[in-house]
Design a protein that fits this description.
This protein is α/β, with parallel strands linked by helices and about 350 residues long. It contains six helices and 17 strands.
C-alpha cells in the first residue's frame, strides 16, 4: 500500500482540538473502533472496555518515552548582532548529550549562529544540513539540559490545535524516559485504573522505548517519511523474554502505537528472533514486509496520505482499512493525538 492511495476526506470538525478531559470525559473513555485483521469486521466501543477484546496471556507492549516540550524561543544572534528577539526553534531529535537536530522555524540560519534562550541556556549552530534542519550544540548537557528544556519549552502543536495546552496533556500516564518531541499518542488513552484491570485479567504488560522525532516540518517541506527519520530505540531483555513467553503460550503481542511496532520489528535478529537491542532505526514497514513480532495494534486515526497508513497496511488489507476509516468518519470519531482509538487484532 502506498499512503498516497489512501485518500479520504477528513472533515475539519473531526480534528481533535482539545484533550478529552477538556471535553468532559476521562482519557480512557474515548471511543474505540475495533477492526478484525482477517475479515475487516468493525465494532464500536469505548477504550476502557479494551480488556473485553484481549485474552488472558496476551501481551501489551507500551512505549515508555516521555514527551519533552520541544519548542524553544530565544534571541537569534549572528556575529554579535541580534537578528530576532523571539526566534522559534523546534527540536527534532537528540543526537547526543549536548547536540540536537532542530528545525529553525523563523530563522534562516548559518553555521556559527547562536540562540540565547536564557542567560543559563544557549545553543550554537554547527551545521545546516540536511535541509531544512540544523545541528545545534547546547551550552549544557545531559540531565541539566533536559531540566532546562522542561523549564523553558512548549509542546509541539499543529494547526488544528489553537490553544496552548499544558505539557501534562501530552503525556501518557506511564511515560518515564524523556526524549520524544511528539507524544507517543497511542498510549494516551490508558489510565492507571485500566492498566491495573488488564493485569488482573492476566494480560501482561511490557515496555520498549522509542523517542519520536519531529514528523511534520514546515509547510513547504511537509512530513518526513520513516526512511528519513532516524529515531532512537531500546528493546530491553525483559521485554524480549515476555514476547517469547507470550508466543510460546499462544498469546498475542499487541503493540501500543506505531512507535512500538517499529522498535520491536527493528530488534529482530538475522535468525528471525527478537533480541534485546538499542540503537537508531529508520525502518519503513508496509504491506510488503511480514510482521515477525507484532500480532495486533492499538493506534489513533491517521490523516489522509500519512506514512503511518503504510504501516497499518502491514496488519490489514488497505481496502478494509479505508472502509473502516470511512465508517469512523460517518460515526464522528476524532483524529490525532487527542482523538479516539483504533484496535486492530
Amino acid at each position: 500500500m502506498n499512503a498516497k492511495t489512501a485518500v479520504f476526506e477528513l472533515p475539519e470538525e473531526l480534528n481533535a482540538a482539545m484533550p478529552p478531559e477538556r471535553r468532559g470525559i476521562r482519557r480512557d473513555h474515548v471511543k474505540m473502533l475495533v477492526l478484525d485483521r482477517q475479515n475487516g469486521q468493525v465494532s464500536h466501543t469505548r477504550f476502557y472496555e479494551l480488556d473485553q477484546y484481549l485474552r488472558t496471556g496476551d501481551l501489551l507492549v507500551l512505549n515508555a518515552s516521555r514527551t519533552i516540550p520541544a519548542v524553544l524561543h530565544g534571541k537569534w544572534i549572528r556575529s554579535g548582532v541580534v537578528l530576532d528577539d523571539n526566534a522559534e526553534i523546534r527540536l527534532a531529535r537528540r543526537v547526543d548529550e549536548r547536540k540536537w537536530e532542530a528545525l529553525a522555524v523563523t530563522a534562516n540560519v548559518i553555521a556559527g549562529d547562536t540562540f540565547e534562550f536564557t542567560p543559563a541556556l544557549s545553543a550554537t549552530v554547527t551545521d545546516t544540513s540536511p535541509k531544512p534542519f540544523a545541528a545545534i550544540v547546547f551550552s549544557v548537557q545531559g540531565a541539566l539540559l533536559i531540566d532546562r528544556i522542561y523549564a523553558l519549552g512548549e509542546p509541539v502543536r499543529y494547526e488544528y490545535i489553537s490553544h496552548p495546552w499544558e505539557l501534562d496533556y501530552y503525556q501518557t500516564v506511564y511515560a518515564s524516559i524523556p526524549g520524544s518531541v511528539e507524544m507517543p499518542s497511542a498510549g494516551r488513552a490508558f489510565s492507571w485504573e485500566l492498566l491495573f484491570r488488564l493485569r488482573r485479567r492476566g494480560i501482561r504488560i511490557a515496555y520498549v522505548q522509542l523517542h519520536t522525532g519531529l514528523s511534520y516540518l514546515l509547510e513547504d517541506s511537509g512530513h518526513r517519511s520513516p526512511k528519513e527519520n532516524f529515531e532512537q530505540f531500546d528493546v530491553p531483555s525483559e521485554t524480549v523474554e515476555a514476547v517469547k513467553q507470550t508466543k510460546q503460550a499462544g498469546g498475542k503481542v499487541v503493540a501500543v502505537g506505531t512507535t512500538v511496532v517499529r522498535a520491536l520489528e527493528s530488534a529482530v535478529a538475522p535468525d528471525g528472533n527478537l533480541a534485546a537491542e538499542s540503537g537508531w532505526t529508520n525502518l519503513m514497514i508496509d504491506r510488503s514486509m511480514p510482521l515477525r513480532v507484532v500480532d495486533g495494534l492499538i493506534t489513533g486515526f491517521h490523516e489522509p496520505e500519512a506514512s503511518h497508513l503504510d504501516l497499518l497496511s502491514a496488519f490489514i488489507d488497505p481496502d478494509l482499512l479505508v472502509g473502516a476509516y470511512q465508517e469512523a468518519i460517518e460515526r464522528g470519531y476524532l483524529w490525532h493525538e487527542f482523538g479516539d482509538m483504533n484496535l486492530i487484532v
